[in-house]
Write a structure and sequence with these properties.
The chain has helices spanning about 1-5, 20-25, 40-45, 55-60, 90-100, 115-125, 150-155, 165-180, 195-225, 230-235, 255-270, 275-300, 330-340, 355-365, 370-375, 380-385, 405-410, 425-435; strands at about 15, 50-55, 65-70, 105-110, 135-140, 160, 190, 310-315, 345, 375, 390-395, 415-420, 435-440. The protein has about 450 residues and is α/β, with parallel strands linked by helices. The strands form four sheets. It has a six-stranded parallel beta sheet with strand order 10-9-8-11-12-13, sandwiched between helices. Strand 4, helix 6 (about 115-125) and strand 5 (about 135-140) form a beta-alpha-beta unit. The longest helix has about 30 residues, at about 195-225. The structure holds uridine-5'-diphosphate-xylopyranose. Uridine-5'-diphosphate-xylopyranose binds near residues 142, 143, 144, 246 and 252.
Length: about 450
């Protein structure tokens, strides 16, 4: 919404929410979301044509186009628990719009939703008694966190799905004309509603599938002596494959990938397509396995016990340049380490310690005083590493690449272990200092690749 306000000074954009504290934060100097470049565009447009308010009903009445952008977490109860999306908030929005609207409105699904949700939205809106007409559009968002502003500025595509009726087509054109202020027309794709809804799930499923494919192969690299970074670099040079989303890691996280795949799986099962459901479910299974494998490798390496040992956790966000921790691999890794009775010293440049402690309280069920005994959040990586038996990199923050590893090594217990869950550390340099480095998809014994000279004579 900030980008629309920035690009279209003649359009008034009002963001409304039930959560007063959140709206207050959007109206303050400390925005609730850390995203590079976002602060600047919010400050430039706020009070001019971008407003944040708790007056939901006025927001609905004053708008021609309403974006429904509420969260749709995976259901934790009842039918579909663990895989279907919880649509309570979407339905509540639709009912409120139907009740309050004072004329024709275009209602846009912006939240990622299971396919055919637009149909339910339509039914709730059309069941209103005041006789106004609504057009429903699907306009999924493809931005990635950490690069959101650039992604919105120059999107690969904008997708708008709508009904094949005259008013449906007019609604599509109305929304397309907003984006067309800054997005080239050929990048604005229009489809039917179901294609648009499914495209979002499919895009995320295909991206996550690439990561799980590489992560699965990282295990093979470790036992064969191949180096996963060399293998993916070579594979990615094929223009049909391409280099993006082939970075092996401790596992993907974030609010979208797992949720959207589970949605896809649920949808396939619903239509009796069990083979298709099983196929996509494997992407999530491998991701879970990768996180478990990472922890197992840590324990194996550290003489089969980590009880009472201090471990420095570098990074808690699900990726760099965000303070978002939703479904972060760090949560599962930390939970498993705590189950083995390790003591954790956690540092993340952007995630507040209260958020880290809440996430870990939720997954471990430990009380704040119990957590205090086994977790400490540190203000920098050096404090986290001091006195630690090992460090584990779980988020690829750039600052971790250039730490003073001599200093860190001296402050750690020996042997000093480093587990690189993102393959970003300077492994050779660290080994030279004395670290025992283990990285994803690198040989189990040393992590080093076979030097070229040792291959001499073999090729013949
Ligand atoms: C994703 C989609 O990219 C975006 O289009 C959609 O709108 C929302 O979901 P996001 O979750 O913000 O975006 O971040 P993304 O960059 O996709 O990363 C997701 C996870 O995959 C992160 O944990 C990241 O570290 C991990 N990842 C990404 C890898 O492990 N390897 C890679 O090669 C790429």
């Amino acid at each position: 919404m900030a980008m629309i306000a920035a690009q279209c000074p003649d359009i008034n954009v009002t963001v409304v929410d039930l959560d007063a504290a959140r709206i207050d934060a959007w109206n303050s100097d400390r925005l609730p979301v850390y995203e590079p470049g976002l602060h600047e565009i919010v400050i430039a447009a706020r009070g001019r044509n971008l407003f944040f308010s708790n007056d939901i009903d006025s927001g609905i009445r004053d708008a021609s186009i309403i974006f429904v952008s509420v969260n749709t977490p995976t259901k934790s109860y009842g039918i579909g628990a663990g895989s279907a999306s919880d649509l309570t908030n979407v339905e509540l929005c639709a009912r409120r719009i139907a009740e309050v609207a004072n004329g024709h409105k275009i209602v846009v699904e912006k939240s990622t939703l299971p396919v055919r949700t637009a149909e339910s939205l339509k039914r709730v809106l059309q069941a209103n008694t005041n006789g106004y007409k609504f057009d429903i559009l699907s306009n999924p968002e493809f931005l990635a966190e950490g690069t959101a502003v650039a992604d919105l500025q120059t999107p690969d595509r904008v997708l708008i799905g709508g009904d094949d009726t005259r008013s449906g087509q007019l609604a599509i054109q109305a929304l397309a004309s907003v984006y067309a202020r800054w997005v080239p027309r050929e990048r604005i794709l229009t489809t039917n509603l179901w294609s648009s809804e499914l495209s979002k799930l499919v895009s995320n499923a295909l991206l996550a599938q690439r990561i799980s494919s590489v992560n699965a192969l990282s295990a093979l690299c470790e036992v064969t002596g191949a180096d996963v970074d060399e293998v993916t670099f070579a594979a990615g040079k094929d223009s049909r494959i391409g280099p993006k989303f082939l970075k092996a890691s401790v596992g993907f996280g974030g609010s979208c990938f797992q949720k959207d795949i589970l949605n896809l799986v649920y949808l396939c099962r619903h239509y009796g397509l069990d083979e298709v459901a099983n196929y996509w479910e494997q992407v999530v299974t491998i991701n879970t396995w990768q996180k478990t494998r990472f922890v197992r490798r840590m324990i194996d390496t550290m003489f089969n016990t980590i009880a009472g040992k201090r471990i420095a956790i570098l990074g808690f966000a699900f990726k760099k340049d965000t303070n978002d921790t939703r479904a972060s691999a760090a949560i599962d890794v930390c939970r498993a380490l705590l189950q083995e009775k390790a003591r954790l010293a956690i540092y993340d440049p952007r995630v507040r310690s209260s958020v880290i402690l809440k996430e870990l309280a939720d997954v471990t069920g430990l009380s704040p005083s119990e957590l205090e005994k086994c977790i400490v959040c540190e203000p920098d990586p050096y404090c986290a590493a001091a006195g630690a038996h090992a460090l584990a990199v779980l988020t690829e923050w750039d600052e971790f690449k250039e730490l003073d590893f001599e200093l860190i090594y001296r402050s750690m217990k020996k042997p000093a272990f480093a587990f690189d869950g993102r393959n970003i550390l300077p492994h050779a340099l660290m080994r030279g200092i004395g670290f025992d480095v283990k990285a994803i998809g690198k040989s189990l014994s040393t992590g080093a690749t076979v030097p070229a000279e040792s291959l001499e004579g073999i090729s013949a």
